[in-house]
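At this stage, I needed to go through a protein sequence along with its fold in token form, as given directly below:
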Amino acid sequence: MATSLGQLLDALVDNAHSLDDRPAVRADAATALGHVGRALAHLRRDGVSPIAGDQREQHVAALAAACTELAARAPATESTLTRIAAAAADTVGVLHAQTTVASRWAAATTVAETVTPLAEVIARGLPAGPAAEWLAEVRHQAVLVQQTAALQPPTRTDAAILDRPVPGPAADRSVDPAIVVPDAVGVLLRATARGSDPPSVAEVSAYTIAAQTLSSAAERLGPASGAVAGPSRASDAWGAVRLALRPYEDGSRRPHAHAPSGVTAAGRLHAVLSEAGSDPNTWTASLRASVAAGAQHLPTFANQLLYRTVRHWADSGTLIGYARDMPPRDERVAAYLRGYQLGGLVRADAVDLQPVAGALHNARLLSLAVADHAAGPGVRATAGFPQRAWTANRALLDDPQTPVALSEARQQAHQQLQATRARPGPSRAR
């Protein structure tokens, strides 16, 4: 099942608080600190500050080294704390391509918060000696990181990376919607993240179907007043994205022998939510919670498509289409007059892709609204709900300019849907 770095770190702290002071437990906590040091070293190596060598980098590096030295002096073990800490450190590496300097600082501060409860477990009955000296150093460096975080706190948006779902190894064989939904969301976020291969038009079309289905399911949750109000909803905005992509081609709209992992995940998400039915009262509590949790990541998903995929298409000139289907331009009069013939094909640039970018912008804004709508107080209280992602969404919704932008996005999405549906499709020459 999909998990997140934040869930693993929370579980590490909870387990540390619940354990006794047996020697085996202390050894387990010390070994776990070694993996905490590995996670911190990874974050420091990737960069936790835009200024090389500043206090953030120095304190994180010192804490990582102290944790590693202490773990080297503990008996080797592999129990509960060690396994959770190792999984958290591995997750830091998995999230590498999806992080920024600011989000890595947010992750480092949260990882550092696990040091104190682990150190408390080790300190119970620890005799004087080199291990005790390194434990004191670990505590000292952890305080320095926490003090630096208090002076330079991560933003709520930066901390949302801690709730990014990471797919489990066996989730693709599950048919449980409560497992499929978070797993598929994690795969889609990874497929559109920085560092991954830019998706094709066919892939993005499949992704938008999944996003539309998830948005539609989330719109049925929340208050009993019904669906999200307005002339256009997030599900409509995601449908508008797919329709805006219709004029563009990159050779991927054809049968494929094997579907990419993102397309497979999108298809599974669409299938399980379609089979769940339209009445959320018939859903299990775990399915409602997974839909509400998945909706919290839709704004990030739209943002990644807008600023990475569409920008790549515009910069690389990957897409072609008929001039007649694109925004009119004086220099393309001849191609426009050739209609849906070979001479009417042109290569799409940033100007031509403005309808797609606008549709994704609207989908991002309306996804913020539906994510907040789905996250009622009862849902937010469930275990595993991405509180940090919801808080980041709320921070954007609380911006004084957001209500006006949301109103404009609803109107534009509605108009774009109507205009695209009314436009005649290309001839058989397509």
Observations:
- Residues 177-422 form one domain.
- The chain has two domains: 5-161, 177-422.
- The beta strands are 320-322, 345-347.
- The radius of gyration is 25 Å.
